[in-house]
User: What shape does this take?
Amino acid sequence: MKQLLIFILFAAMLCWLMFSPIYKHVLIVRQAVLQQEVDYLLEVGASGSYGYISPAMMEDSRDRLGRFGMQPADVVFELSATSGVDASNPYAPVLRGEGISLTMSYPYENLFDIDRLIGLAPPLPGERMKAFGMKMSEYVP
Assistant: This one.
C-alpha cells in the first residue's frame, strides 16, 4: 500500500514537472501578444491621422489574436479617454493632449488545471489575463 501511494505521488509530480513549463510558456506568449496588440492599437489610434480606436480596428485585432490560437470572441476591450469622450467614435476623435487608455483581457482557459496535482488552486473561471496601455492623442483637426 505504501509503495502504491509513493508511485501515485511520484507519477503526479513527474507529470506536473513535465508539463508545467509548456503551459507557462503558453501563458507568457498570450500575455505578450495581448500587450503587443494594446500597444499597436494605441500607436495607430492615437496617431495624428485617427485620434480614435474604431470597432473595425478592434475586430481586426481580434482576427490577429485568432491567428495565435486565441478565441476572438473571448477578447474584451475596455476603451476610454481622459476627457470622458467616446474614444471609439471616428466622427469625434480625441484631440491632441488627451489620453486614450485601452485594456484588453482574455480568459485563462484552464491553463492552470494541472497545478491541482501539487495542491495549487487554479484561477477562478471568471478571472482573466489583462494588458493595459495609455497614450496621448496626437490628432489635430
